[in-house]
Design goal:
By secondary structure, the protein is an alpha+beta fold. It contains eight helices and seven strands.
């Protein structure tokens, strides 16, 4: 199944290319003006679709009621938040959640790890349906990782300073930002000591069944919302609903996934 972001990006580039041709052959007249506008529009849309396709494409498909179909029988509804498939008159819908992990288990004490595992097991036991949690691991480039950590730490310190300077600062937000900055500090210290950074991409999948497409989709969305709360509390991570190209990447990773760290990092928005 071709990813929507790539399709829309290539279409935008084609519009820009045609506009550039019009601008060159227009001789400074109206055709050149139209060509320049098309070139500008194609360039801007190409960048937007490539960088923010996971936001823009679901908005476009939902408003235009575009349904994507694959040659394997899978269907992506206009909302682009689930993957549908029918079998024997029964419909199955899968929803995907992204897990943003900021703290490694190796950074916890033995007591914290034991408490974390116990709480996680109790929380997961409340889920009444099969859930898949996948982790993709790879060794990151040290130089690029250090630049990223230093940038994230600076951003966290800036947000923390702004919150502290407020007339009535949010104590809980300050605590969260302080922990975030401490995490970036800890990761930077490890890099300086020569510890190789490990990249982690984690996502969860839940599937619901129904006698109609709407019933299956409603079930998958309901399960995803419940799972989102459970995982956020159990794993102490940020959990987000995946849509559009981000969702399709996870769906494709069920069959094949990038073979190098560079490909993996480039595939993450």
């Amino acid at each position: 199944m071709a990813t929507p972001a790539k399709t829309y990006t290539m279409a935008a580039i084609a519009v820009g290319f045609i506009g550039a041709l019009f601008a060159l052959i227009g001789g400074g007249g109206l055709l050149s003006l139209v060509g320049a506008l098309l070139c500008f529009l194609g360039s801007v849309l190409g960048v937007l679709f490539w960088r923010y396709g996971y936001i823009m494409i679901p908005l476009i498909t939902e408003r235009t009621k575009i349904v994507m179909m694959s040659d394997l029988g899978y269907e992506i509804p206009p909302t682009q938040d689930v993957v549908l498939k029918s079998s024997g008159g029964i419909f199955y819908a899968s929803a995907f959640l992204g897990l943003k992990i900021f703290e490694s288990a190796t950074e916890k004490t033995n007591e914290e790890t034991m408490s974390y595992n116990q709480f996680f097991e109790r929380a997961i036991s409340n889920i009444k349906y099969v859930t898949k949690i996948a982790y993709l691991l790879y060794v990151e480039d040290v130089g690029e990782k250090r630049k990223l950590i230093e940038t994230k730490r600076a951003e966290g310190q800036l947000r923390l300073a702004r919150e502290r300077d407020k007339g009535q600062p949010d104590v809980l937000k300050i605590d969260r930002l302080e922990r975030e900055v401490a995490i970036w500090d800890n990761q930077l210290t490890k890099l300086i000591k020569g510890v190789k950074p490990m990249g982690v991409i984690a996502y969860a999948q839940t599937t619901a069944v129904g006698l109609s497409k709407d019933a299956a989709m409603a079930g998958a969305r309901s399960q995803a919302n419940e799972l989102k709360t459970v995982l956020a509390n159990a794993l102490n991570v940020e959990v987000v609903n995946l849509t559009g190209d981000e969702m399709l990447k996870c769906f494709e990773w069920e069959k094949f996934f990038p073979m190098t760290a560079q490909e993996m990092e480039e595939s993450v928005i």
